[in-house]
Every structure is written in C-alpha cells, then in structure tokens.
Amino acid sequence: MNNYVSVLKLLIKNMFRRDRAKAKSFGKMLLVVFGLLITYAAVSFLFITLIYFMGSSFAAFSLQSEFVSMILATGLMVVLIFGIVTVLTCLYFSRDTEFFFALPIKPATVFAAKLTIVYLTELAVTALIMIPCLIAAGIVMSLPAIFYVLLPVAVLFTPVIPLVLAAIISIPVMYVVSFLKNRGALGSIVVIVLFGAFFGLYYAGVSQMQNINPQEIDLSGMQDMFRKIASTMYPLYALARAMTATPVFGLGAAASVAVNLAIYFGIVVALGALVLFISSTVYRRGASGQLEGAKRNKTANVSYRGSGTVKALMKKEWREILRTPAFALNCLLGIVMCPIIVVFFGLTTKTSMAAGEMASQSEAQIQIMRTVMKFMMLWFVMFMSVGTNAGPATALSREGEKFYYTKIIPVDYKTQLKAKSYVYIIISSISSVSGSVAMAILDFNISFFVCSLIFLLIYNFAAVHFGMLLDVNNPKLKWTTPNEAVKHNKNVMITVFGCMFVSMLLAVASGALNVVVMRSGSVSGTVANLVSLGALIAVTVAAAAIMYVMFYKNCERKIDEIEV
Predict the structure, then answer these.
(1) Terminal CA-to-CA distance of the chain, rounded, Å?
(2) What is the pLDDT of residue 197?
C-alpha cells in the first residue's frame, strides 16, 4: 500500500509540473479560463435543453430509471472510448515505464497507480458532463431526495466500470502485440479498428431504433423496449433504480435501494479485482515488449538513407504517428469516422426526407431541404477530415524532448516542416475523399461532388498550415505520456473549436448562397452548385495562400527561439 501511495504521489506531481520557461501571464491564463468557461456553458446548455425535452417524455411513460441509466451510459461510453487510448498511452507507451521497471515495486502496484491517474483524469471530464445533466433530469422528472444523495456516488464510481473494461481490453491486446514486429503500429491499428467498429455498431443500433414506428407500439411494449435497452448495462441500470427508488423483486423502496446498490458495487469490485489479477501476470510482459520494440526502432532509421530528404522525413513522421496509439488515433481517426458519420447522417436525413415528401410540401421546399442536408453533410466532412486530425497542431509537440534532433540534423527547418505538412495534408485528404465518396453514394451529383472535393482539398491545405503555425509559435515539449502531448495541448483545442466554427460558417454561407441562386430564377442545381461552391473555393484559396505565407515567413526564426 505504501508503494502504491508513493507511486501515485509521484505521478500526480508529474501531471501538474509547470514549465517555468513558458509560464503564462495572469492575463493570458484568465483569457484561456474565460474561453473554456464559455465553451462549457454552451455545451452544458445544449445537453440540459436535450434533457429537458426528453426527460418529461420518459417521465410520462414511467421510465425515470431507464432515462437516468441512459445518461449514466452516455458518460460510460465517453470514458470507454477515450479511456482505451488513455490506458494504452499511460500504461504501455509512457516514458516512465522503464524507470518504474527498475524499482523494487510489483508491476501490479504500478499498474494500479497508473490506472488511478487515468481514472482521476477521466473523472474530471465526466463530472463536468454528467452533473448538469443529472441535476436537470432530477428537476424535470421530479425525482425523490435519494436521487440527489446518490448523485455524487454515480459521478464518482461510474467512470470506474469503463476504465476497468478498457484496461481488460488493453491488457490482452498489448500482450498479443508484444510478440509481433512493429508492435506500436499494430497496437494503433487495433485501437482505430475497435474505435471505428464501436461507432459503426452504435450508429447501426440508432438507425434500427429510428425505424421503429411509435404508433405501432403500445404503452407496455414501449416500456418493455426501453427496459431491455437499459438492462444491457445492468450495473448502471441497478444504480439508476437505486437513485429513483424504484421497487424491485417485490421489496419496499428502502430495501430496493440497498439491493440495487449492492448489485452495483458488487459488479464494480469484481471487475476491479479481475483487472488487478490479470495485470499482475500480463502487464510486465506487455510493457516490456513495447520497450523492446522501441529499442529496435532506433536502429531502423538507417533505412532512411537512400531516399530523398523530404521522402525520408515523411517516412519518419508517418512511422512516429503510427507506432503510438495516442498519436495514431488523434491523427488518423477521421479516415475511419468521416465516412461512418456521413453515411449515418445521410441515411437518417433521407428517411426524414422521405417522410417529408409524403406530406403536403411543394417541390421547391423539398429541393431546399435537400440542399440544406447536402451542405450539412459537407460540414460534417469538413470538420471530421480536418478537426479530428491533431497532427498539424502537435507537429512539434509530439517530438517532446527529442526536438533537439530538429536543430542538429543537416536539413534546414523549412524542409523539415514541409515534410510534416505533406503527411498531414495526405491524411486529411484521404478523409475528405472518403467522406466525399460517401456523400456521392447517398446522393450523387457530379457538379457538387467535383466542386466540393476541390474545396475540401484546398481547405485541408489551409487548416494544416494554420495548425502548424499554432504549434510552431507555442509547442508543448514537456510531457511524459503521449496522451499529454495531444489531449492536454491547447493548440489542439483551438484547432478543433476553430475548425468547428469556421466549417459551420462556410457551410451555412455556401448553402444559403446556393438556395438564393436557385430561387432567384429558373436556375438548375448544377449552376447553383457551381456558383456557391465556386465562391467557397475562391475564399478558401485566399485563406490557404495567407496561411502558407504566414507559416513559412518566420518559421525558421520561431524554431531557433524554441528551447527544450
């Protein structure tokens, strides 16, 4: 126990280590905090609004515990999805793994301490999401006082289940990968495939639920359907029934609360014991395999000689991304997720459009709706292809303490940066092409397909150089785990929210122009697409040129000023 506490303290101190060389002024810190608060308030407002409209409907059908379990399941899924990556990076790809292996401490103790750090990190995010949602649900559905008493329990212990599941998944994955070549690359591929498969199954399930006609289901049938859905996450369902004081097994309210809490905590404790048992035998092998792979990778760089300078640097950048799951997921996720989200949204809107065409709507109204949906899909492609690619915003940050290689190799800075930008442009372009193809399959229009694809490629070019400009100006080079270089990097946050806002603005402006052109006279859809997307392309070309000039104008001086 003493060793566990000592390791935990050391990890916590390392998390809050400050870079004195880049200490921010009070004004800058206040501005960042203000921006985060505004963003959090806006997101919370959207969630609370959704809870308000859905909560009253569920309460009308006596499905309070089922609705609470759905809120808890949402927090669980968020932690599970991102927890797998966090667990992998914190446990197997951390720079302190070799250090802890040299200490007279059991691997299970190190594993438990690191898993606790991951839990505390994810708890902070989960609490910010779940607390306003649960409070809103309690008010809307007029839940009893026991709900608010158990609310802290739900917030504190719900992240435990997904993190334990993530640890259970990651342990055998890394154990198997440790026997193979290119261990880091295979681990990254496994994580991306699992991530894509999960979202694919999730969207498929949502689509199936949308096909259900509520008029064909009686009240008892609807209640049974949602209870079956909630029971698939039985520990959360038990906790939700305890929070709503729902009677079970023919018991009274107080006894039902006690039984449901016993079920919930029993499952949590059992999963925790299971993961500690597995870690004591498997963790050392999996982490040791990654250290062995890292040592061999150092000699593999000899193969870069014989290639051109830019080509060799592009190979290096690509391999660095692929061999670390945290980098791979945050840079390559858009390639998998972009077509999945576009197809899901497209099929959903086509179903809605079919229902709308059945109604008494004019052909002009239907055409406008189709145009709006088409540009909304374009917005999804813009955001997923660029916003999910954290590569540009962490181009130098991911180098960490190895950044000094950038200054000592006999290649000028501009060439090194060009090689990095080419890799990120290729990644984002693949996402754009896959998303455009998905849009074309759902609703093929040759003029829209060609013009939107040209626009997306230019937009990617501009966004990549904007993200790299941010990172060159202020890279985060002090980090221990790869996850810190990406997840705790404000450049990524600025890029994501900036891309979301700019993409929405451009899509709305272009879509509105398309509708105005069509309604101004007898103009075909092809002409409207050429006019609206042509204007969009012209604006984006200007933005791309400005970003390119701004980035390369002072890049060498900026890199000279960076100190590791």
Answers:
(1) 36
(2) 65
